[in-house]
Each structure stands twice: as C-alpha cells, then as structure tokens.
Design brief:
Blueprint (H helix, E strand, L loop, with lengths): L1 H26 L5 H24 L5 H41 L4
Helix pairs in contact: 1-2, 1-3, 2-3
C-alpha cells in the first residue's frame, strides 16, 4: 500500500509539472495559474488520502505511522517542487527560443 502512495505522489508531481509547462508554452505564462489550481488540488488529495490511510491502515504501529507521515509529507514536497520546476523549465525554454531566434548560427 505504501508503494502506491509513493507512486501516486511521483505521478501526481509529473502530471502537474507537464500539464503546467505545456499549458504555459501553448497559451502563455498567465495560464500557469492553472498549475496552481492543480497543485492545490494535489495537496488536498494528498491530505485526504493521508487521513484515510492513517486511520485505516497504520493505526496499530507507531513506527509505520511515522513512516507513512513522512511519505505523505514527501508527496507534498514533490507536488510543490514539480510546479516550481515547470516554471523554471518554462523560463529556460523561452530563453533558448529567444537565443536561437535572435542569434542565428554562422
């Protein structure tokens, strides 16, 4: 079960990063606010799953409870950092396009 939680955080982070980056590249930088919505949605989903998981699965073992708490916190960090990474990649791609268009080879 805990592997599913980790995988959910990683897949959610990639989904947020890729969606935000593609939307910003296609429609413009202001559409990156859609990524904020996805990020908040992902964090809230993580909190919901954390409550359910902590109540149902690991209620008997304090060690398992601590490990699960850290994994859910890690998922929140993955989600937050994926949004920041998409903003960084957007700036890098924009600079690359600007350099290639303004300074032709030769």
């Amino acid at each position: 079960m805990i592997e599913f939680v980790i995988l959910l955080g990683v897949i959610g982070g990639w989904f947020i990063a890729v969606t935000t980056l593609i939307v910003m590249l296609v429609f413009g930088k202001m559409w990156g606010l859609l990524g904020v919505f996805l990020m908040v949605l992902g964090v809230e989903l993580n909190k919901f799953l954390k409550r359910k998981y902590m109540d149902v699965v690991v209620s008997n073992s304090p060690w398992a409870r601590e490990v699960a708490r850290h994994i859910f916190e890690m998922n929140e960090l993955i989600i937050l950092s994926s949004y920041a990474a998409s903003l960084f990649l957007y700036e890098v791609i924009q600079k690359y396009v600007e350099i290639v268009i303004n300074v032709p080879a030769g």
